[in-house]
């Protein structure tokens, strides 16, 4: 893949000199509803990079641009009912997980992680992470165009030179049917997606991907009340100013290791929970995890039976986590002190009840996964020790066996004590 021959401005216009000589993907297949047949519309993708970012330019031809479905939506609401493009990027080139970057004809973003180990699981495509990247798009007389710039600091890649990455591009084209158009043929019934990625080769001279990120914060709060609570006209009395502070830190000493630490984290920068209807619901509501401390390699927290839900760590006082990969092994280990708060659900045979979580606890979570070709086996351990007495401990193995390109066997056994 050649380097950019000049500057690229992210504005949806592909006439920048940096696109001259870029690698081109111009062969696509319609995988739905057709079975790897030529698409009804043409798509071009341009790929290049420099010392700062990896760039993708998209040109989506459309004979009827007035039919383009491009609503103004929130981030991560770029969905299958609308026109959009998605780029799956595997910078480790192991075809096990990929970062997904979406853009619609308005330039609105949707980003996720795709995990092959969760094939058939609803969490295989996880929109919880929010990656930093730039995007812009334009609707034209012949369709729509888009530009994406992904900073190299957003990506994790090895120290090899040259690099080889995997890429798969998907175009969603909803008209009389919802047409799925891919840059690689995808056989019907296949039990993998990333295994059909194309290879990007010849990527050279990239800066080191190791870095520090430190995010401290300090807040101050002052409030007051009437000196006579029974008389709202009385003088206003200020309470003493209260200060608060904390810090989040991440260290990636190499592409395969990440150390996260937090002290009294401030999650006020995290967006509000998505709206959900709570009336007449038979089950507990599930909210996506948006807190940065818990998002590193979040696929390692996900198993066939969802045994880990980090939102139950409601108010961490501190936390420490290590995540990494060595050879065929991947691991994550997390410890935290939770100040508690909120309510916990106590499930019953006919209904559930609530109990106030007005207690502190210590939490530990660990998972180790061993790959065997395209299959794997892993072990999961979780432990919550309540201050003053009480505990919940869960332990068990799980596995995934890809017997063939079409056959998949998954299993998990969990043992718990409370």
As a percent range, the share of strand residues is over 45%
Element pattern in H and E: EEEEEEEEEEEEEEEEEEEEEEEEEEE
For the record, the CATH architecture of the largest domain stands as Sandwich
Whole-number tally of structural domains? 2
- The outline comes out as globular
Q: Assembly type of the shown chains?
A: single chain
Extract low-pLDDT stretches: none
| Number of distinct beta strands | 27
Structural class: mainly beta
Number of helical regions: 0
Distance between the termini: 55 Å
What is the average of the pLDDT values? 90
Radius of gyration: 24 Å
CATH topology of the largest domain: Immunoglobulin-like
CATH class of the largest domain: Mainly Beta
What kind of sheet is the major sheet? 10 strands, antiparallel
What is the helix fraction of residues, given as a range? under 10%
Write a compact overview of the structure shown.
The protein has 418 residues and is an all-beta fold. It has strands spanning 23-25, 29-32, 43-49, 53-61, 84-90, 97-103, 109-115, 125-126, 134-140, 143-151, 163-174, 178-182, 198-203, 211-221, 224-226, 236-238, 242-254, 257-263, 316-326, 329-338, 343-346, 353-356, 361-372, 375-386, 391-402, 408-412, 415-417. Strands 14, 17, 18, 19, 20, 23, 24, 25, 26 and 27 form a ten-stranded antiparallel β-sheet that branches. Strands 2, 5, 6, 7, 8, 11, 12 and 13 form an eight-stranded antiparallel β-sheet that branches. Strands 1-3-4-10-9 form a five-stranded antiparallel β-sheet, with no helix packed on it.
């Amino acid at each position: 893949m050649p380097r950019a021959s000049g500057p690229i401005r992210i504005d949806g216009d592909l006439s920048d000199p940096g696109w001259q000589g870029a690698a081109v993907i111009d062969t696509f297949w319609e995988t739905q509803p057709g079975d790897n047949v030529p698409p009804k519309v043409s798509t071009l993708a341009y790929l290049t990079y420099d010392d700062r970012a990896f760039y993708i330019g998209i040109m989506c031809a459309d004979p009827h641009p007035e039919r383009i479905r491009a609503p103004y939506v929130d981030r991560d609401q770029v969905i299958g009912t609308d026109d959009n493009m998605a780029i799956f990027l595997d910078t480790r080139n192991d075809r096990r997980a990929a970062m997904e970057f979406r853009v619609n004809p308005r330039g609105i973003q949707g980003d996720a992680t795709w995990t092959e180990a969760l094939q058939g699981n609803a969490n295989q495509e996880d929109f919880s992470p929010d990656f930093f990247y730039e995007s812009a798009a334009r609707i034209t007389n012949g369709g729509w165009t888009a530009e994406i710039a992904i900073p190299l600091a957003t990506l994790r890649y090895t120290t090899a030179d040259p690099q080889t990455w995997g890429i798969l591009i998907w175009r969603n084209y909803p008209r009389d049917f919802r047409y799925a158009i891919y840059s690689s043929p995808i056989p019907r019934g296949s039990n993998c997606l990333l295994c059909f990625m194309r290879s990007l080769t010849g990527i050279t001279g990239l800066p080191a991907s190791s870095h520090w990120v430190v995010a401290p914060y300090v807040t101050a709060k002052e409030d007051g009340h009437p000196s006579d609570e029974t008389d709202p006209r009385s003088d206003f009395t200020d309470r003493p100013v209260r200060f608060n502070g904390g810090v989040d830190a991440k260290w990636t000493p190499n592409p395969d290791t990440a150390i996260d630490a937090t002290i009294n984290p401030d999650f006020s920068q995290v967006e509000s929970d998505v709206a959900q209807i709570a009336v007449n619901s038979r089950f507990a509501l599930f909210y996506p995890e948006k807190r940065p401390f818990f998002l590193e390699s979040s696929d390692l927290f996900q198993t066939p039976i969802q045994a880990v839900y980090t939102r139950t760590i409601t108010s961490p006082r501190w936390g420490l986590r290590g995540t990494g990969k060595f050879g065929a092994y991947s691991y994550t280990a997390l410890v935290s002190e939770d100040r508690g708060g909120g309510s916990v659900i106590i499930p019953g045979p006919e209904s559930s009840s609530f109990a106030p979580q007005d207690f502190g606890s210590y939490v530990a979570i660990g998972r180790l996964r061993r790959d065997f070709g395209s299959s794997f086996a892993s072990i999961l351990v979780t432990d919550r020790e309540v201050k003053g007495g009480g505990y919940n401990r869960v332990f068990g193995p799980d596995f995934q066996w890809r017997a063939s390109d079409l056959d998949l066997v998954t299993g998990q056994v969990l043992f718990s004590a409370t």
